[in-house]
Structures are given as C-alpha cells and as structure tokens.
Specification:
The protein is an alpha/beta fold and 426 residues long. Helices cover 48% and strands 12% of the residues.
Amino acid sequence: MAVSEEQDTNNNLGSMSGLSQLESAHSVDDIFKYVDRNSLEQLKCNLLNYQRKLNGLPEVFSISSSEQFQSAYDEIKNFIRGGLEINWEEYIRDAKENIDEYIWLFNNLLKDQKSKDVFFNLFYSRLTLSKEHLRAAFSNETQYFDEKNVSFLNGEILVDCGAFIGDSIIEYALKNPFYKRIYAYEAFPESFKKCNENLTPLYNDGRISVRQVIVSNKHGWLNFQENALPGSNAIDENGRLKIESVSLDEDILERVSFIKMDIEGAEMLALEGARKHIIEEAPTLAICVYHFPDHLWKIAKLIYSMNPAYSFTLRHHSTFARFETVLYATSPDRGSFIVEDPFIKSYLAQTSLAVRIRDNNTFNMIKVRDTYIDQLEGAIRWFQKQLNENQKVIETLQSQLKNKHESKDNKRILGVVSSLIKKFKR
C-alpha cells in the first residue's frame, strides 16, 4: 500500500506502539496505515489491549501462545458480549489480508461524506470492538426504503429477497402505494406462512406474489438450516430442510426496478443470478453486506463489475451490533415519482411508523395486522373521500362547460377535465 511520506511525518504513527497507533487513528488514512504496519498477530493483540485499557485492565505486551491469548480474551469477553460477541478474529484477518480492497472501495465507490463516515466507524469497530464507533456508524434512516438513499417510481416492480414476515414490504407499500408489482421470496416455511398471513388481508389486489424458494444463482434444490434467531435461517449443506432455489434472471421475465436482499449470506449468489437484470435494467439495489466480513467489499466489487454506472452509498441501521449494514446502489438514469400531495405524503409517513415498532429481543414485528390494519383502513376511507369530493367538483365543472358555447378554450379545458376524471377513476 502506498503511503504518503508527508502524511506519515504529520501523523508520526510509525514511532508509536500498536495500541497508540490505534488510539491515534482519527481518519480512514490513519486506520489504513495502522493495518498496513501491523502484523495479524499484532492487530489481534492490539484489539485485546484496546478493550483491556477501556475496561481498566493492564495492557498485555506480548502473546506467545494460544493459552495466553485465550486468558487475555476471557478477561474482557464479558464487556463485549451481546451484539459484539462475534468471531472478531475473522474480521481482523479480513482487514489485514484485503486492505487494498477496502482502500479501493473507499476511494472509488463511496462518494458522499456520510458513507465515508459510516465506513470509518464500522472499520474501526471491527478492529477494536468499539461500541462507541458502532453507535457513531448508525444511520437514523428507514432501512432499505429511505428517500435520502433511494427514490420510488410510479409503477415500480420491487423484488424482496428475504421477505421474512412481510414487514419490509408493508414499509415499502406505505411509502409508495403506486407500485405495479412486488415479488416476495421467503424460504423458511414458518416465516413464509406469516408473510402470507400478514400481507393477504392488507394487499389482496393481486399485485404481490409470495414464493417459498431460495434466491440463488441457478434453479435447483438446496439444504436450508433453521436457526434460533428469527430471520437468521440460511443455506447450509447440513440443513435438514430441502428447498427449491431459483435465480431472478430465470424467475422474473419482466423488467424490475428495485431489488432488496437480506438473505443471510447468500447475497453474492443471488446477485450473480440477477446479472442480466442488473446489467440491462440497472434496478436500485439495497443489499445487506454484514453476514460475512468480506461481503462489505466483495458485494460492492461484484455490483460494480456488472454495472459501473451505479452510485453507491453505505448505511448502518443498528446501534448495538454489526448487523444491518446495507449497501445502496442507484442508477443516475433512474427517474423518480414523488407523492406531491402534502396531506397524502404526511398520512403515509405517519402510518409507516407502525412498521418500525419491534420487539428488541426477537426482532419480530409486534402484531403486524393489529398494529396497522385500522390505520390502513382509515387511509383507504380518507383517500376515497378525497376521490369522491374531487370527482363531484370535476363532474360539476364538466356539466357546466357542456352547457356553454363550445369555444376552443372550453374544448381545451373540457379535454383536461376529462383526462382528470379518467385518472381519478383508475
């Protein structure tokens, strides 16, 4: 890795101890240099010392055996358990072995300052298990469907890979009720059943298709493993369930405009299976990149190789764990459809808050239908009332115009009014 001599002199990291280098890293350049200068074993030792110092324990200056390493770790593991108790050695190894990939990702794909800040804080937390930096990476935005990261289209075709119990679909439909079709894929039988139960009474107009299949790179059959944490079931060669797999290119023959993926580590395969859609149609992508350490750069690199015209943003949607990091890719040619009516927009925004009520222990949505079926029915009644009132005004105006002399101006106005009536009736 090329390091600027001027920056090296200014930072003076070379003469510091490993832990001092780590504590003095306040920029992405600093943290990249820190990884480059230290061996894998030094990086692991520095993480232990960072946490030991943070929690009032003496620094360990060298670890010569696995027993010493385990002993030093055992003294801090209670401080980092929970969402941070991961196989952090894999993250350290990935950072060391693939530092050039991360430099490329940061310098070439992440353009907006917020993405750069999210990256720095996530990467720093990977090297230290710092809860402070993990909280700093948090993006207080709606996961997958926030207007700051993505735009919506009138007549959108959404593909939800990993639909779980339908919560993200309901969030999307509340933000953009003008979609054309939604393809929902959920492999786990229990989640698939709940997804159908939650969506059917709310959206029964035939625009949503829910399939119990695995999204992958080809058609076939794969083993699937049930896990204790809801929504964390995944492809596993030792899994007891045998479930059909499909590729998006083969399964969806029409043009798609938005693909969301949260499929427990199978995102790389699923993206390969959507290569044609991505190259030819450039749908907006919201892809989870947290299931494996190297997915942060591998998924970005794969998408870029398929369609280099994409613009990328990185967001992290959890305050307490490494979960819920999402890479967004959008095409500069994508149009947008914005709900212009301020009353409708406000109502949709308020109603969509219901889907973000979750149980922190299980990540399950609380009583999906009970939470917002009343709100949705109220919204339908409100929209219908507005439609009826507008229709009466327009039809009255149309009747008045017909009774007057049909001048060129009146004919033009009549044509506009007629088109409005057709629009409202649709």
